[in-house]
Amino acid sequence: MRDHYQLIVIGGGPAGLGAAFSARRGGLDHILIVERDVELGGILNQCIHNGFGLHYFGEELTGPEYAGRLIDRLAGLGIDILCDAMALEIMPGEQEHSLRLVSADAGYRLVTCEAVVLAMGCRERTRGAIQIPGTRAAGIFTAGTAQRYVNIEGCMVGRRVIILGSGDIGLIMARRMTLEGAEVLACVELLPYSGGLTRNIVQCLQDFNIPLFLSHTITKIEGKDRVKRVTVQQVDENFRPIDGTEMYYDVDTVLLSVGLIPENELSRAAGVEIDPKTSGPVVYENRETSIPGIFACGNVLHVHDLVDFVTEESESAGEAAAAYVLRRSDTDKVRGRDEDHTGKSGDPRQASCFSLVPDQTIAYTVPQRIRPACVDNVVRVYFRVKAPYKTPKQIVFRDGERRIVASFRRPYMAPGEMEHVVLKRALLDGVRGDHLTVSVEEIS
């Protein structure tokens, strides 16, 4: 390890791997990847099902195959990799950033760098976060933990299973447990619509005759040493259980698929501005956070549904991080480039900026801020809708004067499927005011 790097990438999953590869291709020579697991690949290593890579690689791969391709791309590039390691703290500075790292091999190290890419991924929401009443019996797992036990450790977590939540990991584990010989009695979802991809509902539930109960939740867990029984009830529009709708299931296992939370403890401690809607950093069009030289991508920024989009986004962040470092290190080249993109100031942060503001129909947008002068050709905007739309609608961008800047038709939309649109630089230059409102509207 060096004492100083041009770029440090925190996280060795698909986001970190994509960012490091893109930054190396963008001209950086000294890059370090810090990964807390004993090997690179992140969550993909335990996702042995197929369905990955259709958008990015143009073929269907399993999770380990997808991760293997990303890892193989780094061979011979001279990127330092520190696995089984933790980043304890990021200390931002005006000239360089300092990171406290600890690992079994390198021990405690204080390392400096010119730029950081946050790619720590996300974690699962636990039973404690949703406060299900009942006993504290064994047999309650998050879906991702169960997936690791079954796919990596080779251990079955139960034989009679009920799943709370219809996120993609929970749906996939319903199929996986069935294939391993367990009986999955039901999948229970609090909301009136599923939180997973349509293809997973079909392939993982309907193909195996596993019922999905919408607007239902588990209201009680019983069992002394091991889970014995759960109570499921229908909920009203305010998510309160409805008396008289109780259903009882004799089970030995409860899997929780009740949401993912971006891992942003490091980000918050460093002073990075966090968006309460995404629980991830607020970023500009190039995925730079509120702190100069710190970038974010992947599930630490916002929870994605397809890893292909994670890779595309992380490569954009890595490219931007490389440009940031090179711009700082070569004053002459930077002066010309910044005059082209940001005017006389020479600092991208002095360029005019507007915010993307979702209305009541949109859950969030990424990025949250755009500097038109810093966009070369186009900027890709990701978002999720708050409710399912089964008939054609349009996504409308209106500026501060309520003028329509851009609109995009969609045949249908669902909260479980992330949407994206591409805004051209020419459109952005015409924005009036300090914000663009994003909304779902009827097709005019």
Structural summary, described in words:
With 444 residues, the chain is an alpha/beta fold. It folds into three domains: 1-124 and 260-329, FAD/NAD(P)-binding domain (3-Layer(bba) Sandwich); 126-258, FAD/NAD(P)-binding domain, CATH 3.50.50; 350-444, Immunoglobulin-like. It has ten helices and 29 strands. The chain has helices at 14-25, 63-73, 127-130, 143-153, 168-179, 198-205, 265-270, 307-329, 331-342, 425-429; strands at residues 4-10, 31-34, 50-52, 61-62, 80-82, 85-91, 97-103, 107-118, 122-124, 140-142, 160-164, 183-189, 212-214, 216-222, 229-234, 247-250, 253-256, 260-262, 274-275, 280-281, 294-296, 354-358, 362-366, 369-370, 378-385, 393-398, 404-410, 419-424, 435-441. Strands 1, 2, 5, 6, 7, 8 and 21 form a seven-stranded mixed beta sheet that branches. Strands 10-17-11-12-13 form a five-stranded parallel beta sheet. β3 and β4 (61-62) form a beta hairpin. α1 packs parallel to α2 and α1 (14-25) packs parallel to α8 (307-329).
List the helices and strands and how they pair.
Blueprint (H helix, E strand, L loop, with lengths): L3 E7 L3 H12 L5 E4 L15 E3 L8 E2 H11 L6 E3 L2 E7 L5 E7 L3 E12 L3 E3 L2 H4 L9 E3 H11 L6 E5 L3 H12 L3 E7 L8 H8 L6 E3 L1 E7 L6 E6 L12 E4 L2 E4 L3 E3 L2 H6 L3 E2 L4 E2 L12 E3 L10 H23 L1 H12 L11 E5 L3 E5 L2 E2 L7 E8 L7 E6 L5 E7 L8 E6 H5 L5 E7 L3
Parallel strand pairs: 1-2, 1-8, 2-5, 8-21, 10-17, 11-12, 11-17, 12-13, 22-29
Antiparallel strand pairs: 3-4, 6-7, 7-8, 9-18, 14-15, 15-16, 19-20, 22-24, 23-25, 25-28, 26-27, 26-29
Helix pairs in contact: 1-2, 1-8, 4-5, 5-6, 8-9
